[in-house]
Amino acid sequence: MSSPVEVNRRRFLKVSMGGSAALVAAPTLVSWLGAADAKAATAAPAAFVDDYRTNITANLTPETNAVVRILGGMTKVWKTGPDWNTGTVIDHEVLRANVRYCVNLTHARTEAQAREAFVYDRQHQSYAMIGALGPLAPLYRTGAKAVTSITAAPDDTPPAKVEDAVPAGAPEGSALGAGSYTSDLGQVAKLVDTVRGPFASGNPGKYAFQYPRPWRLNENSEVVDTGKTDALGYPVYDSKVIVVKQLLRQRSTSPKDDGGFPSGHTNAFHLAALAYAYAVPERFQEIVTRAFELSHTRIMSGMHSTVDVMGGRIMATALAAATLADPANAEIKAAARAQALAYFTQRTGTTPDTLFAYAHSDSSDQYADRERNACLVEPKLTYVLPRKGRKLPLTVPKGAEVLLETRQPYLTAEQRRAVLRTTAVDSGYVLLDGLEQWGRLHLFAAADGYGAFESHVTVTLDAAKGGFHAADAWRNDIEGPGGLTKKGSGTLTLTGHNRYHGGTVVEAGTLVAGHANALGQGDVTLRGGTLRAARPVRVRGAWAQGAATLDVTVRKGHGAVVSVSGRARLEKGATLVLRLDEKHPPAAGTVVHVLHAARLRGQFDKVELNSAHLRAVPHYTADGLSVRLVKR
């Protein structure tokens, strides 16, 4: 069965490429490392996060530059030549599909998409990312004094270069990008700029790989200079990629200084995104989604290709992790998170516990639909790349866990690494399988918790600490041989169709079953705390409940609220809380089936009903419990 990522990727390709997905037939899988990467690997290079400061224009080899090293998957499809137009195509299938995708997309774009592509080409990338904050975005722009002069596209080709600038009449102290360091959100602006610091440029990679931009290539992925120039004086190449007209004079006229891979704008979008996501994790998935969306405009504009954009994302993911993991930046990242939380809660009248709800309270927010966001992100992880080979586990790159540090603060560093490992993109995508495999990280999915329990997982949430410490939801479909133990005073919600086999234990706090199969396929044990279910839930193994609370919602016409495949045992202190469904409550005189098992032993010490007019009269049998609702 295809994964959700693969299903959405195929759907995306079919829509974006004129209804045909024939361009993604899989070539023979080659080894992950290019020749240069293999040589570097033999020399045991330092981990990227320890070596990221080598990314400067003086270093253009994998032996000397950590970014060039991790982008080595590109060497499996393209061999760099001595000049910009003398490279050799290695994987004709991938690079032909790459350029055809660009051709098709630029031919199919609308005028509105063309104008949008111009805006995000010319606007400061850190400013463009602020739109991901949804209801918090206007507050951020005001608090950070962040401004831009690029808000719309002209009707035709501008006569000269267009650069973003502080517009006339902007408030005193306003700044481009993420904002002013002296503003109410100055620490956040500083964090964004730190992540986009002196070692975060895409230029060394461009010089190292010398892969041309799509408008300099024809659909056979071979560079053909016609010897002619266009009306603007630019060289004419045999290419069917249509550059947005407003961007024609924004292009460089020096091909050797203007490589396509990796995309610098994409790198900048994702770097800014991951800095904002660290400071404002309440909008983590929406920020990641916008980074993918804005990066896609680079292809839409005709300025970059799919491999360029994937390369930019890969390097940005690694660079953001390296910068955030660098001890030299520990103070600024902590200050940025604290400042953002204090500023937004004060301006919105919320608390750390309620800020997340406010940040998702606007139905007009373009990123309000989480499922739509997932469908936008997943196919862009791989674009035209075919997958080939065995499914191999990911060794999470050193330091990558820092990317989830504020989004899942209740997990240990090793647990966050497990989340990244179990939600990663499958192996077998040539560009993503470079050294350290940063391209396989799927941060949108990782924000939804584990993808599998490889061994038993114990998670502790502390309500007193607020925010995600107090409550979080894991939305992935969790598999694996391991199980889950819930500890601490906070609340964890499971909403996936889970198939983990190691059982579920609740010791303290609240575990919410948000899906009929949320509790996996093992035994369920309630030793303390509360298990809550608003809908019927299935237990595939045995049920054991001690001094804990089962809190369930009952509605008219439903079968048993809890169905247990094995035996159920109720011990001293077991409590049952029944809540009447607001829309479809059962009437007085109704018999409600609460628990059904292969065999039931014991009784609840207490049965409570949240009704001022009805009371519940329990009736136990050998295989379950029913209650009759009677008037008080």
Automatic annotation (TrEMBL):
Keyword terms, alphabetized: Signal
Pfam assignment, any one: PAP2
Annotated ranges, domain Phosphatidic acid phosphatase type 2/haloperoxidase: 187-324
Keyword Signal: yes
Highest taxon of source: Bacteria
Protein name, as recorded: Phosphatase PAP2 family protein
